[in-house]
Write a structure and sequence with these properties.
heterodimer; A: about 350 residues; alpha/beta; D-Maltodextrin-Binding Protein, domain 2; 3 domains; two-stranded parallel ribbon; 13 helices; about 15% strand; B: about 280 residues; mainly alpha; MetI-like fold; 12 helices; about 0% strand; globular
Chain lengths: ~350, ~280
């Protein structure tokens, strides 16, 4: 009996070693740098399909530069590659707070902004981080359970547990967006949100803490918890809710545009990557108005290029946030660049306390 | 088998494991230690800092509480299963043992999602209860401590059954007969023979699942609530969310030290029994 256990454990160890080594071996053969390619980190799923169709394929047709897509942008892996002196990725696709954290850690290449049409971008780029899409975060619910007027529509509603009882999730597990939503809910005007009044934000969060069963790790989870009825209301993103209203999207959810937090999806060129010149060409291509319109017509997202807005289809226009809405707030990545580490620690302590 | 040949045989069988340990497992582990003490500057400041932090202490307590409770429940359940298996004819036992091991061959990720479907607010169990009692029943069984414990116990029970079963099968039938001839009642036979003689298996099983559960990551992340954060989740948080690798390394080293302090007595004790 004992013998057979120890043999099987060793087999498992060997198997694990193989599994661990396989990606390294496979990547070593696929990521060879040559002048005609670049490596892009993609999120996978329907998002990646849209990026491939609307951006990558036409880019390769136009320039002849082949784009290798590797899964899951992950700052920790960028840092690890640079530490090991073996950078395999060129272009990183992530959230604005990730762009800011990466800037603080010196992960990104400096970009020459003169090659971009900065005036056309709804969100200003830094000389390392370029926004290439906008996403609108707000309150969502299952319309089969809650009629009009019976669900929260703004952050103040969402934090009003007495008026709208039920379980709810806020934004992704972390302080970014969550604290902004808390301050807006507490009556702070959008123009006064930064720099964040942390004590006030956590005090407001205390009011809803007991109604929050989970802090979603991914945007997919924000949707699935609401679809499965684990929570009654959630904070999520317009394009994700739009996807639930399409065939194969599961139970359709509804989304409120009455108050939104707007944040940008960003591109960066990774410092020390093997194909810097191609990477910069790719980033510039992604910002062209016609590319922006094509991508967001597929995704149902929000283009960062102002010129792309009139090129959107009727259907996608229904899912655009209202830029003139005075209740909306744009997330400020520079605040998070300076404060993410300290505020994250306090937030984490608050969630387990 | 004499001593020398047994050592040689052991050496041949162990060498791949030893090579993996030395060349693949050790270097990153040493690097983690190196990072945690700020490299050659050798400073233990981070350790003092981590140990003093409320977040770490809270998480450490949660880790011990979840591991302790789940291991105890798994031990009781596993003992009952092992007792039943030991009393079966060999052929039937093999089939039943296969059923016990089945969950071990399923990915823990898949099992966690399956538990969400079963235990969710509108999951299978709550739906059946709602139907049976004709009321809208929503027992909270996931995204909390209960869900975490169920997920943990699910993978621990098969692992604890194996060593206990081995110990039970090793008990000589004659001992039971002798006890009963001497007039012992079933309860006393169970206590003085079955339980006492299966203790080696019980201890081995208990310590191994306890050590493994200290490093749990997936189950608390998927089935637990915000307060079910365990040490591995804290390491993940520092390494991926805030990119604070020195702190992540420090917590990893502490977790490793705790695991070793529980695993080492087990290894030593096993060796002393073999000689």
């Amino acid at each position: 009996m004992k013998k057979s256990i120890s043999v099987s454990r060793r087999t498992v160890l060997w198997g694990l070693t193989g599994v661990l080594a396989a990606p390294a071996v496979m990547r070593a053969t696929s990521a060879m740098a040559d002048s005609g390619s670049l490596t892009f980190t993609g999120y996978g799923g329907s998002y990646q399909d849209a990026v491939a169709k609307a951006v990558i394929t036409p880019f390769t047709e136009e320039t002849g530069i082949k784009v290798n897509v590797v899964p899951a942008p992950d700052l920790a892996r960028v840092k690890a590659q640079q530490l090991a002196g073996n950078v395999e990725w060129d272009v990183f696709d992530g959230a604005s707070s990730e762009g800011a954290t990466g800037s603080k850690d010196g992960l990104w290449e400096q970009l020459d902004l003169s090659s971009f049409d900065v005036a056309d971008l709804a969100v200003a780029p830094t000389n390392e981080v370029v926004p290439w899409g906008i996403y609108a975060g707000g309150v969502a619910w299952d319309p089969t359970k809650f009629d009009a007027g019976k669900h929260p529509s703004t952050f103040a509603d969402l934090f009003d547990v007495a008026k709208y009882p039920g379980r709810r999730t806020l934004f992704l597990n972390g302080p970014v967006m969550t604290l902004e939503a808390a301050l807006l809910a507490d009556g702070v005007s959008p123009k006064d949100v930064y720099p964040l009044d942390l004590d006030r934000a956590f005090k407001a969060l205390d009011r809803v803490k007991a109604s929050i069963p989970s802090w979603p790790a991914t945007s997919t989870q924000t949707i699935s918890l609401a679809q499965k009825g684990e929570v009654d209301f959630c904070c999520t993103f317009a394009s994700r809710v739009k996807a639930t209203n399409q065939p194969g999207g599961g139970a359709p959810l509804a989304f409120s545009f009455e108050q939104n937090l707007l944040d940008s999806e960003i591109l960066t060129v990774i410092k020390g990557g093997p194909n810097k010149a191609n990477a910069i060409k790719f980033v510039a291509y992604c910002l062209r108005p016609e590319v922006q319109a094509r991508l967001n017509n597929q995704l149902g997202g929000v283009p960062v290029s102002k010129k792309a807005r009139p090129m959107l289809s009727e259907e996608v226009r229904k899912w655009q946030p209202d830029y003139e809405n005075p209740r909306n707030l744009f997330i400020d990545p520079s605040y998070w660049q300076a404060n993410n580490a300290a505020v994250s620690a306090r937030f984490k302590e608050w969630t387990v306390g | 088998m004499n001593m020398t040949s047994s050592i040689r045989a052991t050496a041949i069988f162990m060498s791949p494991a030893a090579l993996i340990a030395i060349f693949i497992v050790m270097p990153p582990l040493l690097y983690v230690v190196y990072t945690s003490v700020n490299g050659l500057a050798f400073s233990l400041d981070l350790y003092a800092d981590v140990v003093a932090s409320k977040l770490f202490r809270q998480t450490l307590i949660t880790t011990f509480v979840i591991s302790g409770i789940s291991c105890f429940v798994s031990l009781v359940l596993g003992f009952v299963v092992a007792l039943h298996l030991a009393s079966q004819p060999a052929r039937r036992r093999a089939i039943l043992l296969g059923l016990v091991l089945l969950p071990l061959w399923t990915s823990i990720l898949v099992k966690c999602f399956a538990f969400m479907v079963l235990l969710g607010r509108e999951g299978v169990i709550n739906s059946i209860l709602s139907w049976a009692f004709d009321a809208h029943i929503q027992l909270p069984m996931i995204l909390n401590r209960i869900g975490t414990l169920i997920g943990m116990i699910n993978w621990q029970v098969p692992l604890v059954v194996l060593p206990i079963l081995a110990s039970l099968l090793a008990i000589d039938e004659a001992v039971y007969r002798a006890a009963s001839i001497m007039g012992a009642k079933p309860a006393r036979i169970f206590w003085t023979v079955t339980v006492r003689l299966s203790l080696p298996g019980v201890l081995a099983g208990l310590l191994s699942i306890f050590v493994m559960s200290l490093g749990s990551f997936m189950v608390p992340a998927l089935l637990g609530g915000p307060k079910d954060l365990m040490l591995s989740n804290l390491v993940d948080y520092y390494s991926r969310q805030v990119l604070d690798w020195p702190r992540a390394s420090t917590i990893s080293v502490i977790l490793f030290a705790i695991s070793v302090s529980f695993a080492a007595p087990l290894a030593l004790w096993r060796r002393s029994r073999r000689i």
